[in-house]
Amino acid sequence: MQSVGRIIGQQGRRGRKRILRGGLTLAAASLALAACGSSSTSSTSSSSSSSKGPIVVGTSLSLTGDFASNGIAFQRGYNAWVSYVNSHGGLLGHKVSLKILNDTSSPSQVATNYQDLITTDHVPLIVGPFSSLLTVPAAKIASRYGYAMVEGAGGAPSVFSYGLKNVFDVSYPIKIAVVPTAKWIASLPKSERPTTAAYVTSNNIFAQPQIAPAQAVLQKAGVRTVYNQVFQSETTDFTPLADAIVASHAQVVVLSSTSVSKIIDFVKVFTANHFYPKVLIGTNGVGEPTFVNAVGKSAANGIIEPNGWYPGYKNALSAAFIKEYLKLYGGSAGSITASSAEAFGTGEVLAQAVQATHSFNQAKILKYLHSGAVFQTDQGPVKFNSKGENVDGIVQTFQWQNGGTKLVQILPKSSQSVAPLFPRPAAG
Fold this sequence. Notes:
- By secondary structure, the chain is of the alpha/beta class.
- The protein has two domains: 6-175 and 313-382, 3-Layer(aba) Sandwich (Rossmann fold), CATH 3.40.50.2300; 176-307 and 396-411, Rossmann fold.
- It has helices at residues 23-36, 68-86, 107-119, 132-144, 179-187, 211-220, 239-248, 260-272, 289-295, 297-300, 316-329, 338-357, 362-369, and strands at residues 6-8, 55-61, 96-102, 125-126, 149-151, 167-169, 196-202, 224-231, 252-256, 279-282, 304-307, 375-377, 380-382, 396-401, 406-411.
- The strands form five sheets. A four-stranded parallel beta sheet has the order 1-3-2-4, with helices on both faces. It has a four-stranded parallel beta sheet with strand order 8-7-9-10, with helices on both faces.
- Helix 8 links the parallel strand 9 (252-256) and strand 10.
- Helix 1 (23-36) crosses helix 12 (338-357) and helix 5 packs parallel to helix 6.
- It starts with 5 loop residues before the first strand and ends in a 17-residue tail after the last strand.
- This is Leucine-binding protein domain-containing protein.
- Residues 1-34 form the signal peptide.
């Protein structure tokens, strides 16, 4: 097994959620490109691109704090990428080493970490942290020193509102996440289409932007808003909010939060009150085993989640990711989260940019990322607009079916998808 990145915590430092386009042939070709461009070894605190020594890729991840579960998933995804590229020749003949600093889910600490990685450790390449909240301060530091920051979990509109020219998100823009489901609802015959909807979201920069675009689609289709509430991220008692949604008798409910535990709390209240809206959408973590274990299979049945990846996605690069992940961590494909896939895809894009430019020069890499080139990843195609958003990003929409025992793709409609379960059945 290839060695993977080491983690450095605070001590000793200063203050320390998709469909294949172009077919499997294109993905296989891209798989070869990504492979011939990359490699990995045990990490070191310095690197040089002038010799065949290891190239250190630096990152800051939330290994503790509020984002720890996703941060650890990102760590695993990055480690899988490093192991994969190292087994295929490395980046321009250099083995790749990953250096991870723990940001404790703190915006100030993530800035310090990237400052250290760039100015103290002099890493030649960096990749992004987890969450939009942390991507902004990280990208600002990277921009100051002319570094490209490819990332996979910073898709909130606010990330792209600062005019930064160095941030590139390989996942779809988060603002469009619920739109495909809203369009499907709007396409239903009027006699079947739900007539009312309720929306609740945390005030998080990731969660809140997902509501308005979907709400606009539904309202245009005659689906009336009967409840719309934003709650503070610090909220711990969701019973009053959930009770209000139950009282609204909404036929469509959208729950948007960065925390799956909060969505779980809502679903438990709904189930206790025998409230089963025709469509129930959760924007984060609903597709994971943790969610089903918490609410029960029967209650999970019919619940929908938008995401960029799932283990059943038919994509050659996705298959390579799963193989590498399981080699490192064991378990089953069904236990792998989309966060790990996002991290692996981030590494793929960086590797393809390095290979295309045959360089570790940041100016050349930035120019190529802005060139309109199309990259292939385990989540599907990636093409950046001038802001760094992935305009080719595909929202894949999933639903628990078969009594909550099977997560299936329902949108976009394709040979891989199955018909949505509608209306959502009551729990047995």
